[in-house]
Amino acid sequence: MKTKILSVIIPVFNEEKTVSQIVKKVNDIRLTGIKKQIIIVDDGSTDSTKPELKKLKDRYKGMTVVYKEKNEGKGSAVRRGIEFIKGEYAIIQDADLEYDPEDYKILIKPLIMGKADVVYGSRFLGTHRAFLYWHYVANKILNFITNILYNSILTDMETCYKIFKSSVLKELNLKSNGFEIEPEITAKVLKRNYKIYEVPISYYGRGYDEGKKINAIDAFKAVFVLLKYMFFK
Q1: What is the structure's pLDDT at 161?
Q2: Can you give the residue range of the structural domain that contains 17?
Q3: Among 57, 137, 169, 172, which one has the highest count of C-beta atoms within 10 angstroms of its own C-beta?
Q4: Number of structural domains the chain divides into
């Protein structure tokens, strides 16, 4: 049986403190019958992330590192990373250690079994650090709006951990540059009636003092995107 590949897209912006740790975690995780392709996209970092990535490229042979000249946002980095996917499956991995690659094992199962086209890792179904209250409220509101608009029952539409059949991710034809990439993905997956599973994942949420970047404005952008893709492709 042919060994399948999981392509891991890691968008990075000013993550000098954590990028080495997350790459090691992704590299070390073992999945039965699955190899990993690591794709890192640096979104114009201004700290020491770029020199660190050069060291990692030498250490982990076969890893793809892409450098963007200009910082345009997570969505832009993800879209760039999609161009380099070689695997049958693909996942987006933030570089900030909030999400644990150990959860790949549970995330990929419904895909391997042919039960799903996309699997969402829900932070609200699994164990998690007690993170910021207003982020929790914003997530609940966004989930409610999503489920009303698209007739779904998702518990965590904003989760970073979404694992796809690569053909599905490529077909979505994503447009967003910033954090609104998450609601765009969800809106398009639901609108196209792809089969979605949710599984519980662990989550260690960061505070702003630890480098968290998403803010209240992003929540309003998310609502706009959810409404927008009700009517547009």
Answers
A1: 94
A2: 4-231
A3: 169
A4: 1
The pLDDT of residue 209: 46
**CA distance linking residue 75 with residue 64, whole number of Å:** 18
**Helix boundaries (H) for 102-208:** 104-112, 133-150, 166-171, 181-191
**Cβ partners under 8 Å of residue 188, min gap 6:** 172, 173, 174, 229, 233
If phi over 0 gives left and psi between -120 and 50 gives alpha, with beta otherwise, what is residue 211? Answer: left
Rounded-to-integer distance, Cα 144 and Cα 169, Å? 24
Which two tokens mark 190?
């639901």
Q: Are 118 and 168 in contact (CB under 8 A)?
A: yes
DSSP secondary structure letter of residue 156 = -
> So what's the pLDDT on residue 13?
96
Tokens read off for 164: 């796809």
- pLDDT > 50? residue 105: yes
pLDDT at 131: 58
Q: Is the pTM of this model over 0.85?
A: yes
CB distance 16 to 49 below 8 Å: yes
Strands 34-42 and 64-67: parallel
Write the CATH number for 225: 3.90.550.10
Q: Shortest CA distance to 42 belongs to which of 74, 79, 68, 16?
A: 68
At residue 35 the predicted structure's pLDDT band, cuts being 50, 70 and 90, is very high
